[in-house]
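Support request, please re-run this one:
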Amino acid sequence: MKILVVEDEEDIQRLARMSLAHAGQWQVLLANDGEECLTMARREQPDVILLDYIMPKLDGFRTCQQLKADPVTRHIPVIFLSASVQEHERERGLALGAIGYLLKPFDPLQLPQQILDLLAQAGSASPVSS
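Re-run finished. Output below.
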């Protein structure tokens, strides 16, 4: 499974990459901001995007909105990743088309299964298992 992790904090990028690589059969791509995400999503066509809310240049909400408006990327499931526990932010992300919302700090041992669970709930499950 190919996953695009969009996160501007290097420590979180590194932790997510190690967590997903440890689960096996995950190809992890990294983007530092929303603009880079849009370019990579169009080019790489990942199976899922793990998207931070707060980033430079283009925040997660606007990035998700643009992903879902683009016929080339609208089919890609988006999961928000945020340290914010504000219910209105979660609702806004889901209203923009995200399939789920995960909180930071995340448990690196649970992250792959959490992603698979959200994909399964959304009906986008991949045959790849953790």
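The two ends are 10 Å apart (CA to CA). Residues 10-23 form the longest helix (14 residues).
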